[in-house]
Amino acid sequence: MSYFASLFSFFRKPAKPEPGEDEQIAQFGKPKNERRKIERRDAIEGTRALIIDDSKTVVVTLRKILVSQDYLTLEAFDAETGIEIARAESPDVIFLDIVLPGMNGFAALRQLRRDPITKDIPIIMMSSNEQATEEFFGNRIGADDFMKKPFAREEVFARLNKLVGEDSKLRRPESTKVAQGSGV
């Protein structure tokens, strides 16, 4: 048998099934594909997420991830526009980049937390900056979570899962409300 013939025959061999997979195949016709490592509570269909980021790539990626789980997205490419949208539309959650043209994400976060209309909207700060001080500072001025860029789909839903209540609505955790106090 030639080298190539033996190579092709190697790839034609069926893969050895995982323990218990034969029973799954017999019972359901195909092996169980377990993608999720952690049970996830999904938000109510139509939950609105505002994405504030100056990178079109980040906005499109995050939109695609969120829409796949029936979120509706609102988008802004600068903080000032994002704040206007947040006040007008009252989204259920805001993804806010730190480095933005004009007003930065920290200033936007302060403004959103001081405004009675937007103060209770959960906010997830985002950054590709390596400095952990941003995360610390972001949490001290009222961010509910921090997500490092680039991010994976699982990361986005892990952050959202922490904000989903028993009623499937997104809420600010009590711990961040208390930590925020009056120092905003």
Provide a descriptive summary of the structure in words.
The structure is a single chain. With 184 residues, the protein is α/β, with parallel strands linked by helices. The protein has a single domain, classed as 3-Layer(aba) Sandwich (Rossmann fold), CATH 3.40.50. Helices cover 41% and strands 13% of the residues. The chain is built from 8 helices and 5 strands; from the N terminus they run H-H-E-H-E-H-E-H-E-H-E-H-H. It has helices spanning 3-12, 21-28, 56-67, 79-89, 105-114, 132-140, 153-161, 174-180; strands spanning 48-52, 72-76, 93-97, 123-127, 145-148. It has a 5-stranded parallel β-sheet with strand order 2-1-3-4-5, sandwiched between helices. Helix 4 packs parallel to helix 5 (105-114). The N and C termini lie far apart (75 Å).
Please summarize the sheet with the most strands. Answer: 5 strands, parallel
CATH topology: Rossmann fold
Q: Report mean pLDDT, rounded to a whole number.
A: 78
Radius of gyration: 22 Å
What layout of secondary structure does this protein have?
Layout lengths: L2 H10 L8 H8 L19 E5 L3 H12 L4 E5 L2 H11 L3 E5 L7 H10 L8 E5 L4 H9 L4 E4 L4 H9 L12 H7 L4
Parallel strand pairs: 1-2, 1-3, 3-4, 4-5
Helix pairs in contact: 4-5
